[in-house]
Amino acid sequence: MKKNKFIDAVRSAGSEPLAAKDIAVLQVNMGYQCNMACSHCHVSAGPARTEAMDKSTVDAILQVLADNPIGTLDITGGAPEMNPLFPSLVNSARKMNNRVIARTNLTVFFEKGSEGFPEFYRDHEVELIASMPCYLEENVNATRGNGVYQKSIEALRRLNSLGYGDETGKLSLSLVYNPAGPFLAPAQCTLGADYKRELKARHGIVFNRLFAFTNMPIGRFRDALAKSGKIEAYEEMLASAFNPATLEKVMCRSLVSVGWDGKLYDCDFNQVLGIPVAADAPQYIRSFDLSALSRRSISVDDHCFGCTAGQGST
């Protein structure tokens, strides 16, 4: 049986095994189809992926939101906009006064049929978390493909013109940094100041907040690490940077992740790895039980060092 180093690290820090505290966020993965195939993508999303959430699962999610005081719907993918059911999910959740977050890659706005999403987001007051791995063109294109940087800049300008990212915060626009290689992100506050300065000076772009996320050693990023012979060194680096102070606020303690097929997970990373919620908790969105899921034990493995290394990544 494989030794679980993460559990040992938690115990060594004098902490109890991770357990949920509540459920403040329902995170929903609409499917793995995406208009891009980024080298750091933990779900290995791309144009050829066919996994997609169906209407019965969307309906079950909306019923859960109607029946439970969760409050926040966090929608991801792939590119969630590529699922035809995405607009109706957003619209229905907002009608129930749920806070809605959409994780977008920005370039999807240039795909046929997706051109109107910026205005759709504005009209429904959707909070946006947008992937922007760097403020330098060469670094973004190296990670995400040629021409992606310029499309991202154009998309951000359009969002700014609609009111996203200004200091009022009414239409929240956050950016996401991912390291370009097998190393930890710099301090989030320092890097955020760099992003704001550089994007404003170079392109006149404003945004509200930067998230600096560690690349998980799963999916396409793991494949790249294995190919370069760096996977063991990267995993050891994450483990050696374990920070017990991050355990209190790791996202899995206040979130449930819903897979495109309706299965329940502790996070989107566990979803990709096929690690479901604890066996004594409901396994599918159709059997959702807020009380049981709010007190579940969290399923962990060594990839969890990615969320607890250094400043944390939550």
Account of the 3D structure:
The structure is a single chain. Strands 6-5-4-3-2-1-7-8 form an 8-stranded mixed β-sheet. The protein has 314 residues and is an alpha/beta fold. The chain has helices at residues 5-12, 55-67, 86-95, 117-123, 137-144, 148-161, 188-203, 219-227, 231-240, 268-273, 290-294, 305-308; strands at 25-29, 72-76, 99-104, 127-131, 173-177, 209-212, 255-258, 264-265. It has 12 helices and 8 strands. It has a single domain (5-308), classed as TIM Barrel, CATH 3.20.20.70. The mean pLDDT is 94. Helices cover 35% and strands 11% of the residues.
Order of helices and strands: HEHEHEHEHHEHEHHEEHHH
Give the biggest beta sheet. Answer: 8 strands, mixed
Q: Please tell me the CATH architecture by its name.
A: Alpha-Beta Barrel
* Ends distance: 29 Å
Given the structure, what is the number of helices? 12
Beta-strand percentage range: 5-15%
CATH class, named Alpha Beta
Write out the CATH superfamily name. Answer: Aldolase class I
Overall average pLDDT: 94
- Would you count the extended β strands for me? 8
Strand order of the largest sheet: 6-5-4-3-2-1-7-8
Any idea of the CATH topology? Answer: TIM Barrel
Identify the notable features of this structure and list them briefly.
314 residues, alpha/beta, TIM Barrel, eight-stranded mixed β-sheet, 8 strands, 35% helix
